[in-house]
Design a protein that fits this description.
Layout (H helix, E strand, L loop, with lengths): L11 E8 L2 H11 L3 H4 L1 H5 L10 H13 L7 E12 L8 E13 L6 E11 L5 E12 L7
Antiparallel strand pairs: 1-3, 2-5, 3-4, 4-5
Length: 149
């Protein structure tokens, strides 16, 4: 677990692997984003995507899972923001996603000395190294010296 004090601006990491299935794409979309190119393989084949693709929000949920399962995850208290979000390439069944990250900013909280803010640029990439989504995530992170209090 990385506390606020452990984080260095400029540090980078590549981690995780998440395999995307057609069943998961359809299930997520049926519940949260029921558009034909997410739920119906025949309709998706006729769409501008030429086949089934994951919802962008499903892609973000997969990014969250990869982040939460990271062995050296931040001692996050809460997510604060996701800025500069751009879906770059569609996610398809059989894709294997991983994350590339770079810490771009950190600052102590001005109102609570037991925490600080860490902003990380995140890119999800597929098995071919193509970026599928990118964004800047800001988290509220515990300070080590206050963890036992």
């Amino acid at each position: 677990m990385q506390y606020y004090e452990d984080v260095e601006v400029g540090s980078t990491a590549t981690f995780g692997e998440y395999e995307v299935t057609a069943e998961e794409i359809k299930s997520f979309a049926e519940t949260y984003d029921p558009q034909p190119f997410h739920t119906d393989e025949e309709a998706a084949a006729e769409s501008m995507f030429g086949g089934l693709v994951a919802s962008g929000w499903h892609t973000m949920a997969m990014c969250m899972r990869l982040t939460a399962e990271r062995p050296d995850a931040l001692a996050a208290l809460a997510g604060v923001a996701a800025d500069n979000l751009r879906w770059v390439n569609p996610v398809r069944p059989g894709d294997r996603l991983s994350l590339r990250t770079e810490v771009i900013e950190k600052r102590p909280s001005s109102s609570h000395e037991d925490r600080g803010y860490v902003t990380t640029h995140v890119e999800a990439v597929n098995q071919d190294g193509e970026t599928v989504v990118r964004f800047d995530a800001t988290a509220l992170v515990k300070r080590r010296s206050y963890d036992d209090q």
